[in-house]
Amino acid sequence: MSSLNKTLEIKTSPHIARGVSTDMIMRNVVYALIPVSIFAVYAFGLSALLVLITAVVSCVLTEHLLCVLTHKQSTVGDWSITITGLLFGLTLPPNFPLWMVFFGGVIAVALGKFIFGGLGYNTFNPALVGRAVLQASFPVAITTWHPAFSTDRFSTIASSTLTFPFMEPVYDTVSGATPLSVMKFEHIAAKTSDLFMGLTTGSSGETSALLILLGGAYLVYRKMMNWRIPASIFLSVAILSGILHTINSQYPAPDFMLLSGGLMLGAVFMATDMVASPITPIGVWIYGALIGTMIVVIRVWGGLPEGVMYAILFANAFSPQIDNLIRPRVYGTSSRWSRT
Amino acid sequence: MKTFRHGIHPGDYKDLTRHIAIERMPFTDELVIPLSQHLGAPSRLLVKEGDKVYRGQIIGEPAGFVSIGQHAPVTGTVKAIEMRHHPSGKLVESVIISRDPYSPQTFYNEHAMEWESLTPGELISLIQHGGFVGLGGAAFPTHVKLSVPEGKKAKFLIINGVECEPYLTSDHRVMLEQFDDVFYGIRILEKVLGCERFYIGIENNKDDAIALLNKRIPADMNGEVVALQTKYPQGAEKMLIEAVLKREVPSGKLPIDVEVVVQNVGTIAGIGMMFRFGQPLIERVVTITGPGIEKPSNLLIPIGTKLADVLDYCGGLKENTRQVLFGGPMMGAPQVYMDVPIMKGTSGILCLTDEEVTIREEYPCIRCLRCVDACPVYLNPSRLGALAKTRDYEGMLGYHVMDCVECGSCSYVCPSNIPLVQRFRVAKALLREKQAKQRKAS
Amino acid sequence: MLILTSLAALGGLTLILAAMLILANKKLHVEEDPRIDIVEDMLPHANCGACGFPGCRPFAEALVSGNALPGKCTVSSEDGRVQIAQFLGVDVGAEEKIVARLACAGGTNVARNRARYQGLQTCQAASLVSGGGKGCFWGCLGLGDCEVSCDFDAITMNPFSLPVVNEDKCTACGDCVEACPKDLFSLQAASHRLWVACKNLDAGDEILEECQVACTACARCAMDAPGNLITMKNNLPVVDYSQNHATQVPIQRCPTGAIVWIDEKKGVIKGEQSKKIIRKGERPIASS
To answer: For an engineered disulfide with B164, which of A293, B194, B234, B329 has Cβ 3.0 to 4.6 Å away?
Structure first.
């Protein structure tokens, strides 16, 4: 009988699976970042391209080497490290010395991700860990911006980019000031439309709000991103800076706050790092509000012109606590709060 | 369109058998009737080796309250009483009956039962001895759910015609072809429960059944057909109650605590059939389907027929078949042995091929929230999975792992292919073992 | 100046905190027999619970109060036990060496699988999926839950996915007994040399199709054994260890080698007439 001589397989239910897989999600995030990266190269030229490539290569290489050293299967194939590399590159000034980029990439992967156990276990967004270390180590280099759309951007490379390893960079051109530092120190706001389109100076990926939002919209459409996180950040920043602006018009207006600096990139691509954000919808709103509040506080009263990075790292540290406190309400129970 | 919150949309794959009418499968030579086809105590044996039995004759009586009667599905002789493979993978004491080839196999005692004068208690006893269990798959004895505890009241009767498992169509065909029995069964249950109103919950991928039952509800009955949005796991009791009545069964409680009793539509039809013709539960409608079977069909199969015989009747398995399941793809039990019998709780036989059975690489959890959004009982499978990985089963209790209905939605949506439900099953089994041990100690 | 103030502030704080700590230590001090600490130090700190106490400290308390004897600790070396006994001036309380034994010999070279199991590679998980797919319902699934559970590295999986207990290392803590979903492990006195390495409750030769070393309930061992040393219960021979069982006679005629003699030096000895297993590879999966 045909039915009788068959070697069957047994496994636990469910026996069918859906198409989406983790590497697919990660790949799509990379796709969403491509327009921003292309615009960064278009705006800042060859230097930015070199910074981005170095960032990605250093991250991927570090991850692969660490896996080999610890006798694990290489996890480069899940694409998550490519995101880290790309995001890390986008947070840096386009004329940032390449050796510093490489150093930061190694730090981002080793200290930000691998030390916690790799993908899924990192408490902080690895790209931001790398940048935070760079900010602490090279405070001058990371706040010296090459002006955008300089005429020779495709023919020459900024001298600081090719600084010899372990040397201080030398800047040849007059460094541009970012809208945020102009605001901070001179109280002059840049034009909203310029900010939106990305026609200002800043880190490679911090300029074009439009492209970032488009990338985010694509991910939300593919259900690969939690829309609540950017929404709550935007909302909290807008409300808080709106209140401050009406009290004292010296404080920047909400539209400037939202569109300047790394807020867009941070809110859409970094705060949404699924691993380091809370699980419940309410928890996510709190998390976003925490980031938004911290951004405004740092920008308005802090010593630095920009606070997105620290705000996100700060909220990352809180997200396990938010999850502990606010758990999904279990079916048939009334309490939303944790019980022991 | 009514439905419950969360859940998943696995796609229904029901077209293979949706339009195929129920066909009676011929009696096979040897049938295996396990004495434990239900949750609860195994039935007490009433026959011995060599006894002649008639179709419909009782061969096992209830051994306690949570136990049911078992009946001979064919006329023949008891060949042996021995341990046989059971679809759950265990070995279970079973009655082996060899068919009398010269018997016409007519039901020996066909008569309509006089039930109007009986009390609810007597009706419940009849249903218990008639061997009825939930035909949806869990095989929980029907009469236990019908016995409303002191001080509680069953206001509503919900008939589960949801059939949310992909591929399966047995309930669908029963609703289309045996609606008379369904309504007759509802009358009996209304008398037993004294309920005010009944609802028949059907998902909107079964338009024809919704329309037909709507049209055929007898004028003197107080009830309605509720069309539900197609979503898994709507057939789970708690989810169905939420979808139909917007009531939430408290954690650790039963539907009766929100004044509801839920019964599968197949069970109701069977009960209707028993009171109309006197025939206990000795056969049931099973969907044999999936890409791995030559001839998908809906068969009326005598309980105890062996799996191999059923598969052969349907043309056999295809070359690339890898899995044979009892039940649907979401919760079905994989089968190892081909001589296991069709049981009362077997709603379908699903044959999956290389194409569907894919073993995918496991990634770490990236906390993408897909499982949290899918879980119908609002658990946090991501966190539970992490706890299970470190074997912190006590910690899982704090995250309500015992409320898990094992529907498989979280594993289904997990992009990292983490075997979440399997981990939860292990945890629940170990926790239950531990609790039993503690109870014994105290 | 600034340095001095800060030094003074910090130093002062340290002094205050230290004073508080000293006070707390004095106030909250609980009078305890100093021997408990000493005895605890002499124990192996394994906290395995084999002695019947929750851990080494409660056991040390029991030792000092005279509620237990050092021999109960199966993890300590002989010298260690004697040392504790001498220190406390009590008997060692010689306890018989107890070890974990596996009642299955169905490795992959002799026992068949009926289906290929996919999923979590633990016995617990596999046993919940239709029993795990092994032909013999009672047999070892070979995924090594016992090996993981053993804190003393006393269990290793052999090339045929069957756990092997190192009796020298085994402390009879009972973790493997709990870990095995098929309940194949039991704690036995190491002096129990006759051993039935099978748990299959079926009678007859059909089981040989599933496993070549299964007990077929032929009862030859029961017949050959002196007196009523071995009786058949549920189609399995049961050795009455309360009798003198130092005889290899019962194993000799076992056709499958299901009943064995576990020699202290030579390991497992099978009967003369039991079929020799020469297959080195895995037995292929076969459908039923």
So the answer is: B234
Single pTM value for the model = 0.87
**Cβ-defined contact of A332 to B252 (cutoff 8 Å):** yes
In a domain, A131, yes or no: yes
Q: Is C247 touching B (CB cutoff 8 A)?
A: no
In the block, residue with structure tokens 């990926």: A205
- Where residue A248 sits, what CATH number does that domain have? 1.10.3430
The 10s digit of each residue's pLDDT in C152-172 is 899 999 999 999 999 888 888
In the predicted model, residues of chain C with pLDDT beneath 50 are none
Task: Check residue A172 and give its pLDDT.
Answer: 61
Query: Cβ separation of C119 and B333 shorter than 8 Å?
Result: no
Q: What is the pLDDT of residues A74-105, one digit of tens each?
A: 888 888 999 999 999 999 988 889 999 999 99
- Domain C34-88 CATH class label: mainly alpha
How many whole angstroms separate alpha carbon C229 and alpha carbon B253?
53
Domain that holds residue A252: 23-325
Residues of chain C with CATH 3.30.70.20: 98-269
Give chain C positions within 8 Å (CB) of A7: 115-116, 285-287
Q: Report the residue from B91, B339, B419 with minimal CB separation from C120.
A: B419
Q: Which tokens in the block code for residue C185?
A: 């492990």
Between positions 252 and 291 of B, the ones with CB within 8 A of A are 252-253
Residues of A in contact with B317 (CB under 8 A): 2-3, 6
Under an 8 A CB cutoff, do C130 and B426 touch? no
A235 in a domain, yes or no? yes
Distance CA B270, CA B279 (A): 9
- Contact between B319 and B292 (Cβ < 8 Å): no
Q: Is residue A160 part of a domain?
A: yes
Chain B nearest-CA residue for C114: B336
Contact A4 C118 (CB under 8 A): no
Lowest mean pLDDT among A157-171, B231-245, B304-318, C96-110: A157-171
Domains located in chain B, CATH noted: 110-277 (3.40.50.11540), 370-441 (no CATH)
Give the closest residue to C168 by CA, choosing from C157, C152, C188. C152
B429: chain C residues, CB-CB within 8 Å: 124, 128
How many domains are there within chain A?
1
Q: Kindly state whether residue A331 falls inside one of the protein's structural domains.
A: no
CATH architecture, domain defined by C98-269: 2-Layer Sandwich (3.30)
8 Å CB contact between C123 and C176: no
Tell me the C-alpha distance between C190 and B381, whole Å.
Answer: 45
A124-to-A67, B288, B394 alpha-carbon distances in Å: 20, 51, 28
Segments of chain A with pLDDT less than 70: 1-6, 172-177, 335-340
| B376 at A interface, C-beta within 8 A | yes
